[in-house]
Amino acid sequence: MKDFSGKKWVTRKDIFIDRIASAWLIRRFIDSKARFVFVSKGTEKTPRGTVPFDMYGSEFTHHGEDCTFETLMKAFDLKDTALQSIAEIVHDIDLKDNKYGRKEADGIAQIVTGLSQKLKDDNKLLEKGLEIFDALYQNYSST
Q: From residue 63, how far is each of 58, 59, 60, 85, 136 by CA, in Å?
């Protein structure tokens, strides 16, 4: 696998659960120096030298029944029970199929929805989202 350290990662504006969680996964487990760029919906060309995620046609997006978070976990061979729990929650919220039946999904969806209504700036929303997923990871790591 090529080196993904210190990259600019790009995704669509108006981030929500899968893009927030995926950015957290990237920053915490794939590229600790990751910087994030947000482009308008419908943008087909991404800025030169960036790594797109959760964008149509990109390597790191929905594949089959997987949301982007799950795709990233598989692509980077991340095997961690706490991450798997988070992946199941993100999947249930993002794909709305209740595949995993995670009881936490509704509450987390409400928190992220409230934050996205309050914070219209994607960078600020991502900052708060990182804290949410840090807390979830801490919780699932200690159980």
A: 10, 9, 8, 19, 24
Interval 11-16 mean pLDDT: 97
Q: Could you tell me if 23 and 129 are in contact, meaning their C-beta atoms sit under 8 angstroms apart? A: yes
Question: Alpha-carbon distance 16 to 6, whole Å?
Answer: 23
**CA nearest neighbour of 20 among 101, 118, 112, 119:** 112
Q: What is the mean pLDDT of residues 13-38?
A: 98
Q: What is the pTM of this model?
A: 0.96
Distance CA 95, CA 65 (A): 9
Question: How many other CB atoms sit within 10 Å of the CB of residue 129?
Answer: 24
Q: In this structure, what token pair is assigned to residue 51? A: 């790594």
Token couple for 123: 């960078």
46 falls in which pLDDT band (50, 70, 90)?
Answer: confident
Distance CA 139, CA 88 (A): 15
Tell me what the pLDDT averaged over the chain comes to.
96
